[in-house]
From TrEMBL:
This is histidine kinase. The keyword Phosphoprotein applies. GO terms for molecular function: ATP binding. Residues 217-435 form the Histidine kinase domain. It comes from Saccharothrix lopnurensis. It is found in: Cell membrane. The lineage of its organism: Bacteria, Bacillati, Actinomycetota, Actinomycetes, Pseudonocardiales.
Amino acid sequence: MLLRVTVHREADVFPLRQHGRDAAAALGLDGQNQIRVATSLSDVGRELVRLTTPTTLVFLLRRPPAPALLIRVETGETGGPGWDTARRLMDEVLAEGWATTLVKVLPVGHEPLRAEEVERLRGLLSVRDAADSLDELRSQNQDLVQTLEDLEAKQRELVRLNEELEDTNQGIIALHKELSDELEQTNQGVVALYAELEEKSTQLREAAEARTRFWSGISHELRSPVNSVLGLARLLADPEGDPLTDEQRQQVGLIEEAGSTLLALINELLDTAKAESGSLRPRLAPVDLPLLLARLHGSVQPLVRSSDVELVVDHPPPMPELITDEVMLGRILRNLLSNALKFTERGRVRLAVHLDPDTVRFVVTDTGIGIPEAEQNRVFEDFYQVAGPLQIGASGTGLGLPYARRLAGILGGDLALRSTPGEGTEVSVRLPLRQADDSAAVLALVVVPEEAVRTRLVTALEGLAERVLEVSDGRGALAAARRERPDLVVVSVDVPQVSGTEILSVLRGAEESRSVPVVLVGHDVDSGLERTAAGHAAAVLPVAAITPAQVRDAVRAARTAARLPTPPTEADR
């Protein structure tokens, strides 16, 4: 406790006001807050003198962590304009039944008073004498003068800030105009640059199309004479033909070997052109991986040029049935193995298969000369070959790695390379592990005009669909597809009114049916029908092959194809 005072008469109000101001000043409150405390006590004191009994006020100091000046008024009567003034000027007015506490929070960082400082403050507050009304008026006038001076200083500061703000606004307006002009000029430049880029893009697209046409044309033109050369060489080497001397037989063998190499390069060039133009489509089907790797090992083994090099193809680990394009996968791995064998003088070339949670990895490692770090990105450029002693005499066009990476992308995977010069190279092909899906569809839509064929399909779909809806014409099929939203569509190519391929095109063009598995059924399954199915992510089933097992395989392939990215259309390319 700092002080206890009693208010009963008008003469007690002014000392109470002075006590409040002195306490606020001693506790570090600024002039404005000193006036707020003094004014609050002055107005509350006037309310207290109206009471019939004396009222005691106790000045208290609240310690940290929330230091404050507390003035407890021992009365529960808090009505009147004086109390309203206190509520506006003090930080809190707390009613506690028989007493009411006025709270003024001390400044942040207020240091707690030591015991001797508290005693000194008590002594200072206790020596105040009562004063008359004139003294009170003089004190209030002084407070008013100080308040007016503070307000005038703030007014001058406000005028100064307004002037600075006006200057700033003018600067902002000027800057905005300058930026607007610069932005307008930039926009004009961007428009011009965009037009130039559009023109360059058109030129590049035309150049790419011309290059693709050139590659395709040259490849087709070269294959015929090369095939003729190979045919003649094989006729000459035929044991049933005219006998040849050993030297002649060796020369014919060299002709055949060179022709085979040239034909392989031409085929590679043609496939690269197809991959670039987007016309190369995967034909997804279950792959017998152990058989594929065994055949690959046998076909690549003749490329081993030295007994110092060992070719190893590991047996694959146990894994779910792999669904991919077997031909494309074989070409990827053959390219990687042949590259590794070309540039490995001694040691080992190895192909290993690793099973990951959602992917399968084919890793080809060698102990060859390696690739410098600066060249490791460039080897994926068409026709680029790393210069080196082993490159001399090695056949190739520089298309193997770019071609393999494009095929991996078409199959939904990727190809990565790591190499250390003098130690060897590792190339990893990662493909999605598309497993056969045998889950039953809720609704299968069978669109076939011949009743006998429909019956065979419905029977073969037992276990693959919970319900089968049969339709015999194209218009009814499209209406049923929109109405029923089937989970599987089996459609004949020769459906009346709207053909099966047209139905497939409509299904793939609608967002709600774009990923629905579709099986095309045809009496004559040719390469054109297979290309149509591949281009629309569908599977093909010959009528003669309608058996439960064949239908199940076709449904698996259709489901896998439907999960692939949508092939680009002519408008997209």
